[in-house]
Amino acid sequence: MYVDHADEAIVTPITCSLTAPSGLTVNNVLKTEATLSWNFNTTVDHYNVRYREVGSSVWVTESSITAGSVTLTGLNEDTNYEWQIRAKCADDTGSDYSDAQGPDFKTTSAETICNASAPTELTVTNVSVTEATLSWNLDNTVDYYNVRYREVGSSTWVIESSITSGNITLTGLNEDTNYEWQITAKCADDTGSDYSDAQGPDFKTTSAETNCNASAPTELTVTNVSKTEATLSWSFDTTVDHYNVRYKEVGSSTWITKSSIRVESVILTDLNEATDYEWQIRAKCADETGSNYLDGSGPNFKTTSDLSSEACSDTPTGLYVSNLTSDSVTLNWDYNSSVDHYNVRYKKTGDSDWRYVESINAGSVTLTDVNTSSTYEWQIRAKCEDGSGSDYNDGQGPDFLPPSSDEISVTPSCSDTPTGLYVSNLTSDSVTLNWDYYSSVDHYNVRYKKTGDSDWRYVESINTGSVTLTDVNTSSTYEWQIRAKCEDGSGSDYNDGQGPDFLPTSSNKSIQSSIIAYTSSSKTNLIVKIDDTTNTPEQSIKIFSIYGRLVYEKSNIESSNGEVLYDINIEDGIYIIMLFNKNGEIIESKKVMKN
């Protein structure tokens, strides 16, 4: 008998990936529970997780996990835990536990006081025709959250109650409709914040007629660069079916391709250390129409090496404070990718007890438990993976005083020229450009060029207070400009936002900060010290207010015992200190607060 198999599908077997899991995080930590998460790989058959109390020799294992997270229960309160994860194929081959060590965590105590202040970091993501995900900064001391939302213009709120996580997905929304939302945090006794204290950003659902918009991706960035890995990211468009990324060593003719990516980033592995790479991205619809690789060239990057000038145990540099309000402040420092994590401690001036924030994997942390009753001091240390690192006492940040509510300045409009422009993290092939970030601005655009060139290079749609350039070199000084843009397209002009010129350093120069600044014990003067003062008579120093006004200048600075010291009487505020060489080129800049 003849059987026609023409309509039968040909199934291509999926190859199981043996790569160690990445993106390891811990959240929703309670007295006896914690949720462990990782980047889920659909080619993996299952995951195994093991955990134990720090110092114990006995592991507890959770096996055959087929999701990107697992919630541990039955933990001991007020206890430190460590954990590891491995990925397994159906034949039980795969990665080892030792390949993927998650961040340590500590369960809460039964005596933890509920801190149900207004939630922060309110965002909206994954907006579709009938759904949207609302997110906020989860506080483990809060008992639960309530969210209410409505169509803009409506008087009727819809309420989602007793939420115990840091997000919620709204369903059953009307298409092509504007919505607003608010959130409250509550303790077990129902005390806490009010809805009016936390208004989230409005959002608009999409239309059922939305077509695939596979234009060239924007906001192309490179982060988490190590000796053999790098993370490439872009602005994710939900109408796009998938993205393709290709990359190669600079100068090579052979591209390596990552296909069918349906998220906003991809991690490149097995890179060569101390090597320059370039990459391109394209967006594709289901019918394979879309943008071209040449339309989406990301910034070049260079992998690190064991000879990197920055060690994980170096004292953090570039310490300053920002976003100072009556009950919150952001502490900032220069992020070093070779550091495993940072620990910060802070206290009221004169107190003996420190408060701690640990296992920080970024260049800043926001404190929300400060008040106007006292000035505060803070210290930071960097920690290596093996537990070694710098000392708190070597990383003293500038003191700060939360202002009373009537002292807080009005947030600038979205069209105001950006302020607080300075550069940091200056190396032979990269630099970070910084400015004061304001949430009223829809996005920032930056342009830069070699001094004397006529053609600008552009980085657009930036939603933070800094951007890192990785395509500069030591052959020339550079100039840069910035503008702020509103949602309707209006905004400031590039020419009004001129940042300080910079000159990338040669690779054999140390990038350790030489500027140290702090408020005098009398609280009246700003003390500025400059170390590493080679050729100081040819250098000069300038201090600018946060609004760009020159408040102090000194040429041909002189040293005593290898150190330059200034005792400057200026008003309280935020200042930019700049050190220049004999050619007027910026050597280093630092943002400080005098209070």
From TrEMBL:
Entry's transmembrane regions: none
Pfam families for this protein: fn3
InterPro entries: ECM_Regulatory_Proteins, FN3_dom, FN3_sf, Ig-like_fold, Secre_tail
Keywords of this entry: Repeat, Signal
Domain of life of the source: Bacteria
Fibronectin type-III domain span: 20-110, 118-208, 216-306, 315-404, 417-508
Signal peptide: none
Protein name in UniProt: Fibronectin type III domain-containing protein
